[in-house]
Amino acid sequence: MARRSGGQSWNSRVVGAALAVTVLAGGVSVWTAQAGEANGTAPRASATARGKVPKAVAVSIAHASDAGPRGVNITIDDGPDPEWTPQVLAVLKEYGVKATFCMVGTQAQAHPDLVKKVVAAGHRLCDHTVSHNTAMDKRPDAYQSQEILDAERMITEASGGVRPMYYRAPGGAFTPYSRKLAASRGMRPLGWNVDTKDFERPGTAAIVATVEQELPNGPTVLFHDAGGDRTQTVEALRQVLPELKKKGYSFGFPVR
């Protein structure tokens, strides 16, 4: 979710839920996964040796697309949500588009069936922390570590063993420490180029226009499937995806 004023309402609801579950945090999961393969099949989870740390990735914040210079990365934040995630998944399936879902740990833990559906459809997972605190960059390293690693565990367990491949700081509140920690866990820090501001519900036309106007800035587009009424988001995706295809864009995943 993009950093913004008024964002505390969603954050405060998630924090309440997070307090009930962070005490359950144990060891970090020891699963790895192959996700978003070129053939479009669902990711396969495979156990690794106990305690083995996943292969580290770059600490720099990713924006580019693995689909090349005409590639677009659709990213979906803050879910999964039982009302809106299925609708987003349906639109993505209709147009044959794969996306990256940046999930809040407590939401993933509450809706593991939806996490599994996201994975089964060939989409990728992203760690969006436990409590979605957009002031994470002002908190101690120990707090950042717990937020990132607990969410990683929750998402991995909810998915049935498929690990998040990216880490997106709430509101873009990255720190050198959080980027290094996520990268050491095999999660590439993930930014965005196009903030649709769909969380403000500016109207479907405004969301679509923002994508059209800002896409020249870079390929990673930010949408949301939780945190409020996402009717406009669903309809905007229904309009944006086929239009981008007509213009010669292809859809990929953020670089790793």
List its salient traits:
single chain, 256 residues, alpha/beta, TIM Barrel, eight-stranded parallel β-sheet, 8 helices, 10 strands, 37% helix, globular, disordered N terminus, hydrolase activity, acting on carbon-nitrogen (but not peptide) bonds
The major beta sheet can be summarized as: 8 strands, parallel
- CATH class equals Alpha Beta
Distance between the termini: 20 Å
Order of helices and strands: HEEEHEHHEHEHEEHEHE
CATH architecture: Alpha-Beta Barrel
Quantity of strands, as a count: 10
Characterise the protein shown here.
The chain has 256 residues and is of the alpha/beta class. The chain has one domain (9-17, 55-252): Alpha-Beta Barrel (TIM Barrel). The chain contains eight helices and ten strands. The protein has helices spanning 8-21, 84-94, 105-110, 112-120, 141-159, 176-184, 204-214, 231-246; strands at residues 31-34, 44-47, 71-77, 100-103, 124-127, 166-167, 188-189, 194-195, 220-224, 250-252. Strands 3, 4, 5, 6, 7, 8, 9 and 10 form an eight-stranded parallel beta sheet that branches. Strands 1-2 form a two-stranded antiparallel ribbon. α6 links the parallel β6 and β7. α4 packs across α5 (141-159) and α7 (204-214) crosses α8 (231-246). It is globular and about 45 Å long. The chain starts with 7 loop residues before the first helix and ends with a strand. The relative contact order is 0.22. The model is unreliable at 3-51 (pLDDT under 50).
